[in-house]
Amino acid sequence: MNFDLSAILTDAPRDCWLALNEDGTKLVAWGETMEDAVNKAKASGVDEPLMCWSPDKSISRILGARR
């Protein structure tokens, strides 16, 4: 499966935690803390969200990967 993560995150909120659906194709929630974002994702029906930090400024960095 191919998808453009930059397109998904272009309009995402900044300086917060982002929660993506399980296959990483849709932003489902965000929050000031990771716990807040996870809880909001679970409330929207996504039990195991993929999490990433959205910095206040654009930077190039690999934040993590999950197999």
List the main descriptive attributes of the protein structure presented here:
67 residues; alpha+beta; 2 helices
Walk me through what this model shows.
The radius of gyration is 11 Å and the shape is globular. 22% of the residues lie in helices and 22% in strands. It is α+β, with helices and mostly antiparallel strands. Strands 2-1-3 form a 3-stranded antiparallel sheet, covered by helices on one side. It has helices spanning 5-9, 34-43, and strands at residues 16-20, 27-31, 50-54. It is built from 2 helices and 3 strands, in the order H-E-E-H-E. Strand 1 and strand 2 (27-31) form a beta hairpin. The longest helix is centred in the middle third of the chain and has 10 residues, at 34-43. It has one domain (5-54).
List the helices and strands and how they pair.
Blueprint: H1 5-9, E1 16-20, E2 27-31, H2 34-43, E3 50-54
Antiparallel strand pairs: 1-2, 1-3
Mind describing the biggest β-sheet? 3 strands, antiparallel
**Alpha-carbon distance between the two ends:** 15 Å
Describe the oligomeric state of these chains in a short phrase.
single chain
Give the strand content. Answer: 15-25%
Reading the helices and strands in chain order gives HEEHE
Q: How many DSSP helices?
A: 2
Biggest sheet: strand arrangement: 2-1-3
User: What Rg do the Cα atoms give?
Assistant: 11 Å
| Structural class label | alpha+beta
Q: What count of structural domains?
A: 1
Low-confidence region ranges: none
Give the overall shape: globular
Instruction: Summarize model confidence as the mean pLDDT.
Output: 87
Which range best describes the helical content: under 10%, 10-25%, 25-40%, 40-55%, 55-70% or over 70%?
10-25%
Number of β-strand runs: 3
